[in-house]
TrEMBL record, chain A:
Name listed for the protein in its UniProt record: Penicillin-binding protein 2
Gene assigned in the entry: mrdA
Organism: Runella aurantiaca
Main localization of the protein described in the UniProt heading: membrane
Every Penicillin-binding protein transpeptidase domain range: 250-573
One matching Pfam family: PBP_dimer
Membrane disposition: Single-pass membrane protein
Domain Penicillin-binding protein dimerisation: start-end pairs: 47-209
GO MF entries: penicillin binding; peptidoglycan L,D-transpeptidase activity; serine-type D-Ala-D-Ala carboxypeptidase activity
TrEMBL record, chain B:
Keyword terms: Cell shape, Membrane, Transmembrane, Transmembrane helix
Transmembrane helix listed as a keyword: yes
Protein name: Rod shape-determining protein RodA
Signal peptide region: none
Origin: domain of life: Bacteria
PANTHER family xref list: CELL CYCLE PROTEIN, PEPTIDOGLYCAN GLYCOSYLTRANSFERASE MRDB
GO biological process, one term: cell division
Keyword Transmembrane: yes
Organism listed in the record: Runella aurantiaca
Membrane topology category: Multi-pass membrane protein
InterPro entries: FtsW/RodA
Subcellular location: Membrane
Length: 640, 427
């Protein structure tokens, strides 16, 4: 029976063998398409233009400029007069030799990059001369160009794909020398921006002269241009924020509360994004990486700070929702280990926010942790903290908000597990963690999260994840996750006393008088973030107008001291500018533009700051022929 | 009966000859693939891949001697232990494996890397042969089938986890031995129908396939089946079978569009349309076809290939070694290689059939099956008839693990065959 099955197995083997032999006969003897193709077809990638980036009013922020990359194939090169060629290319003889040597090391038969990113004007000059020098060819390429020197962190940059990235790609799209978004929007929306590369197959003779398409272009594919990004950024406000943050380290994030759209996002100190779009990329990057103020760090989404008193708004909201306090609750200062700044009599939550009363919030937090049936203070603290954590978490703390920028920091919102690990199970209680009541201690947040808090309060209870892109290509919608409302679970009625308190804080409270905006009701909360090194960071969150808010903002100014002092004026000016489109307080504006707090920033002594940003191409400088070429080119541009 | 005096006594010299021919041709083609006319690449130089391949072949010689010395009963007796050790290695590689080309399937020992997946085929072949030829095991019983499937699927799963899907697919080749050893014909039929439907689903939409199946069912019912079978029961049976087939083709469509990872999907798309990924996998296929096609009848001559130099075809010396053969030795050379491997496979079946123990016969079928799968996929992909799956061409492709694994696989069988006159049992 199954003995006969061996014939099927023989049959299967022989059948496949015969099919393959027939196929080989066809490929190798009968069909001569492949012979004519041999040695003479070349695939020419058609690199599409990268998508452009617009602001919320349709102004261009990022676009492309046509440049030319010059390639050389050493074996085909015939140079009668090297000196004349060098003059035409405006390089020296030594540079020519070193570039040519690098090209020969790479390959004598394949073209290698000789000069990168020649401008249209330079190229027009060279083009006529090149006809006399076979072996040179050019490829059209493009560089990112910026309409204004702003938004460097949010936009990110594009650079040559690194060997590591080439190896890591799941499905091999990128090839050596391709450009790739490395940070910011350029990275996050890379797949939309880059478009779809096309390929043309052309036949060429031994000298590399094109002889027309192969197989009549049957196998060619068309390149599809990248999709444009329509951002929610208000370019005018963005630049205004930049001007206010001169001479300061910190971050500003402004959001439209109703949509979660980011209006402006600045990390200071910043840099001109165009620095990374030139062939001096490596040099410029290295220079910025060594800058002690860490301009490469995107403080808005990566900087971790303590929220300080701005967090009292959250404490009040959560406590009321939990039922630990009511809007009219009053606490005496007695028993609290923190001092109060001095103020009139408190009448409840709103006046506590208005005066940012530390002892009040000490008692609020204490009550939240201990307001349960458990008698043992250790166990009670654990139960209380977990409940508090679960409420607070819904404001987006201790997790990524999911903004459309890479490398957003999570921050820290301690829960029971966190303290069990740090202090040991059942060996901690309220007394050890009370500083969180006023936003100090182990809490860590990013400026983005605080801006989102301001937007949540402005909305009285919900937020949409902040995002910068509101439309991609022909699609007028942001990504689906940016249409979703996140509820905090705190009732709308509990927001009113907090909002009132924030209004009073500006009118007659912790905020300096100058920050009051004529004709606009701004609600704000100051914060003073303690840090081990140097002066406190100044923080301010705000939204305006009080009813139907148009803008919510968080301002961080590092080492500038008390929150109402430095951050509030910046926020108030930005709000005024956004709502009125002009600023009436000219002198005040000038004063804050000129203020410099950078000298307060403590720079770590021995160690040079290392930016936590992802390490891009320049970490492997000698890896590619292109980098070698680049290095050589940088050297020669520096030469006198 | 007297023990064999010499270890090479009774060995099947024809197979050894074919093996030697394959390995030698492989070596020279690896040399041609890495040969750089500007540098005068030397064959006896460990710094290039040809030199290393030569070293792999030399060490394979020691393995052959070792296998011929070891008592033939060892393999059957220790099959479970060898299988267990392979599973252990596959687990280990998931933990300590180093990343090469995105898959975590290599164990690095000094400057050499070992790929346990290659040896897992060997372990599984031994284990399967031992298990299914036990007198108590009956391949028509569901419980035994389940255990058999388990033996095959366990290493397969572990290999998939280390992201070597191509290598895992090789385990499908055990269907050949199961078929020979009496698995009900329905299982290979299902496999064949599934593969056919799968390929059809790539080219046609599920709707057309369903229509075609309905027509086929009607034809079978109306014209093929005898009149007395055309009753309600048959209608129900037919609709269940054809319904399942339609469901399968629809789910293939869904699988490809929604479940497969992008790089797998791309490989399948490229088979249908090389334009789908012109600079990546499609380029491989186009370049590979150009290289082979440009060889014409007699080839361009040894070391005179132009397409297969300078990395026109990626993985030139490993998975795409057949391109070098096709380009430099033309149809004559490539047909010779096809015939050589075909001859080897048929010879193995012939040898397997003359074994006196079921274990030896089953093992012979395992070896032939594995060789066949590699032959089918590797050569098929270079001539554009198969999906690009990165598995080597046995004895030809560069690589120590595959060279050793295939040598051991083959010579264990030759050793078993050589002992045939001294074994009596035939169960």
């Amino acid at each position: 029976m199954s003995e006969n099955r061996k014939f099927f197995v023989y049959g299967l083997f022989v059948l496949v063998g015969i099919i393959y032999l027939i196929r080989l006969l066809y490929l190798q003897v009968l069909d001569n398409t492949y012979e004519t193709a041999s040695n003479s077809i070349r695939a020419i990638p058609d690199v599409p233009m990268r998508g452009q980036v617009y602001d919320r009013y349709g102004n261009l922020i990022v676009y492309n400029t046509l440049v030319y990359d010059l390639y050389v194939t050493p074996n085909k090169l015939k140079v009668a007069d090297t000196l004349a060629l060098c003059n035409a290319l405006s390089i020296t003889r030594a540079d020519f030799d070193s570039l040519m040597k690098a090209a020969k090391v790479y390959s004598r038969k394949k073209p290698s990059l000789f000069l990168r990113q020649l401008s249209k004007e330079d190229f027009a000059h060279i083009q006529d001369v090149l006809v006399d020098y076979p072996g040179f060819e050019y490829v059209k390429s493009s560089v990112r160009t910026y309409s204004a020197p702003t938004l460097a962190h949010a936009l990110g940059y594009v650079s040559e794909v690194s060997q590591k990235q080439l190896d890591a790609q799941e499905y091999p799209y990128y090839r050596q020398g391709d450009l790739m978004g490395q940070s910011g929007l350029e990275k996050f929306y890379e797949e939309y921006l880059r478009g779809q590369r096309g390929v043309r197959y052309v036949m060429q003779d031994v000298n590399g002269v094109a002889k027309g398409p192969w197989k009549g272009g049957e196998l060619d594919t068309i390149a599809h241009a990248g999709q444009n990004l329509y951002t929610s950024i208000d370019l005018e406000i963005q630049q205004y924020v930049d001007s206010l943050m001169q001479g300061k380290a910190g971050a500003v994030v402004a959001i439209e509360p109703s949509s979660g759209e980011v209006l402006a996002i600045t990390s200071a100190p910043s840099y001109d994004p165009a620095l990374f779009a030139t062939r001096d990329f490596s040099k410029n990057y290295a220079k910025l990486a060594l800058n002690p103020y860490r301009p490469l760090l995107n403080r808005a989404v990566m900087g971790s700070y303590r929220p300080g008193s701005t967090f009292k708004t959250v404490q009040a909201l959560v406590a009321m929702q939990e039922g630990a306090i009511s809007p009219g609750s009053i606490f005496s200062h007695a028993g609290a280990p923190m001092k109060c700044h001095g103020h009139g009599g408190l009448t409840g939550v709103s006046s506590a926010i208005q005066w940012s009363c530390n002892p009040y919030f000490y008692h609020v937090f204490r009550r939240m942790l201990y307001a349960n049936a458990e008698k043992n203070p250790f166990k009670a603290s654990a139960i209380g903290l977990q409940k508090w954590h679960d409420y607070t978490q819904k404001f987006g703390f201790g997790q990524k908000l999911g903004i459309d920028l890479p490398s957003e920091a999570k921050g820290i919102l301690p829960d029971v597990e966190y303290y069990d690990k740090r202090l040991g199970k059942k060996s901690w209680r309220f007394g050890q963690i009370y500083s969180m009541s006023i936003g100090e201690g182990d809490l860590l947040i990013t400026p983005l999260k605080l801006a989102n808090l301001a937007a949540t309060i402005a909305n009285r209870g919900w937020y949409i994840s902040p995002h910068l892109v509101k439309g991609i290509g022909k699609n007028d919608n942001p990504l689906p996750e940016f249409k979703q409302r996140h509820e905090t679970g705190v009732d709308r009625r509990y927001f009113e006393p907090v909002v009132d308190g924030m209004e009073m804080a500006v009118v007659r409270g912790t905020v300096s008088r100058g920050a009051i905006i004529p004709d606009i009701v701004m609600c704000g909360k100051t914060g003073t973030s303690q840090n081990k090194k140097g002066k406190d960071h100044s923080i301010f969150i705000a939204f305006a107008p009080k009813d139907n808010p148009k803008i919510a903002i968080a301002v961080f100014v590092e080492n500038a001291g008390f929150g109402g002092f430095a951050a509030a004026p910046v926020a108030s000016l930005v709000i005024e500018k956004y709502i009125k489109r002009h600023v009436d307080r000219k002198a005040y504006e000038q004063e804050w533009k000129n203020k410099n707090f950078l000298q307060n920033v403590i720079i770590p002594k021995s160690q040079l700051p290392k930016p936590k940003e992802q390490k891009p191409a320049p970490t492997k400088p000698e890896a590619t022929i292109v980098n070698r070429e680049k290095a050589a080119f940088n050297k020669l541009t520096e030469a006198p | 009966m007297a023990r064999n005096e010499h270890i090479t006594q009774n060995i099947d010299w024809l197979t050894v000859l074919i093996y030697a021919a394959c390995v030698t041709m492989g070596l020279f083609n690896v040399y041609a693939a890495v040969y750089n006319p500007e540098e005068q690449t030397k064959l006896f130089d460990l710094s290039n891949n040809a030199g290393r391949q030569l070293m792999f072949i030399g060490s394979a010689g020691f393995l052959i001697i070792a296998i011929l010395v070891i008592d033939h009963k060892f393999w059957e007796a220790f099959a479970p232990i060898i299988y267990g050790f392979c599973i252990f290695l596959l687990l280990a590689v998931l933990v300590i494996g180093s990343d090469i080309n995105g898959s975590k399937s290599w164990i690095k020992i000094g400057s050499f890397s070992l790929q346990p997946a290659e040896f897992a085929k060997l372990g599984t072949a031994l284990m399967i042969s031992k298990f299914i030829t036990q007198p108590s095991v009956n391949l028509t019983k569901f419980r035994d089938l389940l255990l058999t499937a388990g033996i095959i699927l366990l290493p397969m799963l572990l290999i998939i986890l280390s992201k070597e899907t191509g290598c895992a697919l090789v385990f499908a080749s055990f269907m050949v031995v199961l078929y020979r050893e009496g698995i009900p014909g329905i299982y290979p039929s299902i496999l064949l129908i599934a593969i056919t439907l799968f390929i059809l689903s790539l080219f046609f939409s599920p709707l057309y396939i369903s229509l075609g199946l309905v027509v086929l069912a009607v034809i079978i019912f109306r014209f093929v089946l005898p009149r007395y079978d055309r009753n309600q029961k048959t209608i129900i049976n037919l609709s269940v079978i054809f319904g399942a087939m339609m469901l399968f083709s629809a789910s293939v469509d869904f699988l490809i569009k929604n479940v497969l990872q992008p790089h797998h999907r791309k490989r399948i798309e490229v088979l249908i349309d090389p334009k789908a990924d012109p600079m990546g996998k499609g380029w491989n296929v186009i370049q590979s076809k150009i290289a082979i096609g440009s060889g014409r009848l007699w080839g361009k001559g040894f070391l005179d290939g132009t397409q297969t130099k300078f990395n026109f075809v990626p993985e030139q010396h490993t998975d795409f070694i057949f391109c070098t053969i096709g380009e430099e030795h033309g149809f004559v050379g490539s047909a010779a290689v096809v015939l050589l491997i075909l001859g080897l496979m048929c010879r193995l079946i012939f040898l397997a059939e003359r074994q006196r123990t079921r274990f030896a016969r089953a093992y012979g079928y395992c070896v032939a099956g594995i060789l066949f799968f590699h032959f089918l996929v590797n050569i098929g992909m270079t001539i554009g008839l198969m999906v690009v799956i990165g598995i080597p061409l046995p004895f030809f492709s560069y690589g120590g693990s595959s060279m050793w694994a295939f040598t051991i696989l083959l010579f264990i069988f030759l050793k078993l065959d050589a002992q045939r006159p001294f074994t009596l049992s035939r169960t």
